[in-house]
Amino acid sequence: MEPQVNPEKLLRDLKSPDSHIRSQATRELWNHWYQEAGECAEERLKEGVRLMDQDQHEDAGRAFALLIEDFPEFPEAHNKLATTLYLQDRYRESIAECEIALNLNPDHFGAWNGMGLCLYNIGRFDKAIPSFEKALAIQPYAEVNQLFIERCRRKLN
Prior knowledge:
CATH topology of the largest domain: Serine Threonine Protein Phosphatase 5, Tetratricopeptide repeat
Oligomer: single chain
Radius of gyration: 16 Å
């Protein structure tokens, strides 16, 4: 029997000064998020990711949309659909999916970062900053969020 995942501990581990602990916690959180809706949903999610990795973004988006129809409360399916929409420059649609993912899982640093990137790309720097700040609060060593906060502030000045 597999040991029980403790997401709260993993979230705390993201704040560790030890990079190995942070990396392991990040991997384990992603694995946990992939598995939240069960094995069937996870396999379908992985198929969508495979399509996305092959730059078949429309097919991946359809796969994630169908997955969401069957598992509407699956945050990672919404996050992955948001990613495919982002990759197609469909930022407003991506933001809507990020919002759903975050309503289901407010600790999803990937969705916070993704929403920030979408807002950045549509020039809503004032709105992007809080998204990157939320991601940074969860994952304080993820320097990309700090970088984008600084870029947003420069754009606003």
